[in-house]
Amino acid sequence: MTNPDDKPAGNGTSPRQSETSELAARIRKAQEARAAANGSQQASRQGDMSTLARGLRIGAEFVAAILVGSGIGYLIDFFAGTSPWALLIMFMVGFAAGIVNVTRVVAELNADKTASDDADSVD
């Protein structure tokens, strides 16, 4: 009696072994493709800011511009004795600078996001 797992004398491989090796090759190929896809997604996620971080950066830059403008206006008023005119004028300048900063940062973040989206679609 022969064992069904014994190799036949003719070609050296049984049909069962060839099916197993084909399946193993397909599994390996699928795993490599999945690993490559996950690796590129993780790399792009690490470079991106989270939504909370974006909001905090934009808000901080806006508030900082207003505070710097107001502080400079206060100092001008303090030393020149022109209270409250320099403070009011510099507050408005700081507000305008804050809006310019926010616009610049949002445009920069959108350009980075668009560039990363384009790079992902090419892959």
TrEMBL record:
Record carries keyword Transport: yes
Polar residues bias (residue ranges): 11-21, 38-49
The keyword Transmembrane helix is assigned to this record: yes
Source domain of life: Bacteria
Annotated region (Disordered), positions in chain: 1-50
InterPro entries according to UniProt: Atp1_alphaprobac, ATPase_put
Annotated keywords: Hydrogen ion transport, Ion transport, Membrane, Transmembrane, Transmembrane helix, Transport
Residue intervals passing through the bilayer: 58-79, 85-107
Pfam families assigned to the protein according to its UniProt record, in alphabetical order: ATPase_gene1 (PF09527)
Function: A possible function for this protein is to guide the assembly of the membrane sector of the ATPase enzyme complex.
Name of this protein: ATP synthase protein I
Source organism per UniProt: Pelagibacterium nitratireducens
